Amino acid sequence: MAPFLSPSVVLSGLKERAESLLVQGDKLYVGTATGSIYIYTLGNDSNAEGQQTELVEVKKALSRRAIEHLGYVQDINSLAVLSDSTVTLYPLPTFSPPTILPKAKPALSFALNTTVERDDGKGEQTHGVPTVVTHLVVGCRRKVVVYSWRDGEPQEVQEAVLPHSPRNLAFLNQDTLCFGYSPDYALFSLKTLTATEVATSVASVASSSSISGMGMGAFSGLGGYMTLGLGAKNPKPCTLRIKDDEVLIAKDNNGILLGPDGKPSRTAVIDWPAPPEETAFVKPYIFSILPPGSVPASQVSSSESSANLSFITTPVVEIRSSISLQASQSLPVPFTNPPSTTATQLVRLLVASPAAKPPLFLVTTPTDRAAATAEGSTIWQIAMKPWGEQVDELVEAEAYEDALALLETIDTAILPDKEQRQRLVRALHAVSEFKAGHFKDAINLFIELNINPAKVVALYPESVAGRLSVPQDEWIPLFGGPRPHLETSSSHGSKEDVATTNEDPPASTSTPPRPPSPHGSIRGMGMLKTGFDTLMSAARKDDDTASIRSITKRKEKDKPTKAQDNFKRSVEELMRYCTDRRPWVKGALETMNITTLQAHEMPNLSAASPEDLYALPNIPLTSLSPDQLVRFAQIVDTALFKSYLQVRPGLLTSLCRSGNWCEISEVEEMLRAREKFTDLILLYSGRKMHGKALGLLKELSEKEGDVRDKLMPSVNYLQRLGPSYMDQVFEHAHWIFEENPEIGLEIFTSEEAELPRHAVMDYLEMIDINICARYIEFLISEREEVTPEYHDRLAELYLRSTVQAKKKGDSDRRRATYTKLLEFIDTTQHYRPDRLFGLLPPDDLYEAKAILLGKLGRHDNALELYVYRLQDSVKAEEYCKKVYVPNSPTSNVFLTLLRIYLRPTSQLASPTINLLQPALELISRHSPRLDSVETLKLLPPLVTAQDVRAFLVDALRAPVFDTQVIRGIAQARNEQLDRRLLTLQSRRVKVTDSRICPQCHKRLGYSVIAVHAPHGEVTHFHCREAFSRKLKERR
């Protein structure tokens, strides 16, 4: 890529030899060998191919000698002129009065630097009032003189003695300079005024471009080049500021970049074919003038006149990138086409402006005096191509790193779309890294740039990307780059040689290509071999190949191929990409109240075309719409799922268990083929496809022999379904109840999710009333259900089961269910007895009737059933014990039972039954609970006193008196305590301004006080303990 346009003439026919140039604003200052300065105006467009100049003024004979160097001092708006070993300041635009710098003699060179400092008086340089500071550093014979201005005010002049004379100077930063001594270099600190020698060994930076490895035939035509420097004058030392804290110095054929510490700032060096005569810098390019006969003609494609020569016989202007240090363009002199009649010309290179901005100006002068007198000097302008065009050319050449480095040097004001271009080039660079097999670096860039995951996934084969996969030749256009040109030249290889199939991720399987030799070097010729060397290397290769061929074949069978290894590495990086994106996408969705629980409600990924997915924006996730975020989540999770399936099958389960947005239609068949049924069921569950999951579980259950292993997977799945899927639960639970009702009931007794209880009871009652009864028992015992409706229904189920068992003649079942019924209605209080009583058969279940009558408060009827129907005095007596409560309506229940024994009045009573003996036993056991008088009244006349002796003794010993006395004493004591408490609560103390503390004899005032019993003395709170001790001593 050629970043600069062809040189154009700015000024021609300048009869006086130009020794120095300076561009300041729209003025071009030309210093001549006769000591004059010519002032020209320039056009406004600095990037135009040609500029019109107009002579404004000529300052004749400002010096007796040539004007060697020009500079502009911004603070004082003056022109610094170096001539006759003296630096003179000429105010602009009048050039008078001139100011000679007497201390800077004899001057050899100077450098200018203007910065803005912010000093707040505390040593901080980041805040405070800005101050414009200009340094003019003049290199003299074995010393350096520093002039400075602060906001136009001159400062004290400083001097420092040096071991050598600086012939060239360049600022590294505002405090450090680099001196070129010839041939040595040093760093100079403005703060300490000390110089430090730069010790950079040429051997340590020697380049591979030496000619030691060249074949003998390669020396033809090198006559002029091989004699360069023999007896030649040492070139002027090169010190060229590249950027802040970096300067370029020349060591023979090598250009070394130094940092402020005096050490090379980069490992790479510039490899010139010969020491450059002059150098200049136009951001970000390094210009150097190479001597005649040093640059091979093959390196300069534009040279037609020298096409048949081995080396170009004229000077060559070489342009290198300061970023990559590779040659970008070579311009042989003369620049005209057809060339000038004057073949040999002297070229001087000068920077356009102190800011190192384009264009660059240089001067050519014929070396022949007659030609120089006739033609004069010519000033050329080398204008730079637009920045956007340079970036586009680099992108088209797939030089993405160079394009990025170039963009870093461009100001946003110059290239408004710089940020967008950087993102595009970085994305394309990531694709190129992916092509080269640098999957980790590529994925890191994709993550940093927030690349649409559909494009990232598209780089993978169909086994991972599915329908999103694209061929490799479409990768760059997919990411916004230009479409590649079809290669027709055989030197680039056939398409089959460089293309890779989309079944395996492409990666570089060969040694990375060696960087191209820079224009103007003979590096390519050093790779030549003689015929003998070629034959010997081929013979050795054949022998080695024959000896290890059989071993290699055996090993290749056991080793994975390079493509397989690349595929695995690429998929692992895709897994890392997806796992990085997942939490960010999840967080962005949650801010919009969208979770994976709603995945089944969203449109499927298959509903969108690949083009629609590729068109999703490459922006931060927080800037995406909800629909776009959902698409991102679906793409990422589906790609992650397929990646796990390819290289990490063990991780599938964890992904399926967590919420995900995976497109099931794309992985369903793959999971079935690999028999990953558990993972498929988890996916179905997460996407609410419960019908498919339960159908698959039933299908798998047919392969199990054990009934629990057969049914429990379906039971566990149904347990997790909630009320929203109640119909599906009932539908798929039916076959489980047919297999095993006990296991089937576990569906509805789980802690996972609870279905509506009434619906479950109705469903279970249709299957079996005993199963329904067990479900209600679970609700009452485990869930502590106290609603009468459930208790009533359980009692009814017990009753129905008992009646059905009797009808079927199943006595064991009847006995078991009747026992449950009796125990239930006797122990619980949460059912409605009257409702159940109405459901009992009239001629059966008398014990149940008796319990229900007791619940209704009809104890006499209940006791009659025990005595007359059941003829069980023990249960009758137990009933009385259970309901008896002293001093309550049931305190006479034993007397009621005695009356039923001795005075039967009910029609249920049988005249043949003798109930006297149970009555006497009741009297003897429960005499304290029977009223003595009423009991004696009920006894028949024939009952002797001996039969009721124990009853009579207890009745006569009743402690009625003792009980009344104790009750009276207790009442009197309680009344006394109440009066005492009332008296204590009614006591008060009054604290006035004149009341004195009896302990410290000070006023109480508003202090915290303490009141002492029993006389109510009041003291300060802190005096309470001392006063209490005094009271105890008095007592």
Automatic annotation (TrEMBL):
Sorted UniProt keywords: Membrane
Transport keyword on record: no
GO biological process, any: intracellular protein transport
Family annotation (SUPFAM superfamilies): WD40 repeat-like (SSF50978)
PROSITE patterns documented for this protein: CHCR, CNH
Residue spans of biased composition, Basic and acidic residues class: 553-563
Chief place where the protein resides: membrane
Pfam families, alphabetized: CNH, Vps39_1, zf-Vps39_C
Gene Ontology annotations for the cellular component aspect, listed alphabetically: endomembrane system; fungal-type vacuole membrane
Top-level taxon in the UniProt lineage: Eukaryota
Location of the CNH domain: 15-327
Placement of CHCR repeats on the sequence: 748-906
Family per similarity comment: Belongs to the VAM6/VPS39 family.
Record-given protein name: CNH domain-containing protein
Organism from which the protein derives: Cristinia sonorae
Lineage: Eukaryota, Fungi, Dikarya, Basidiomycota, Agaricomycotina
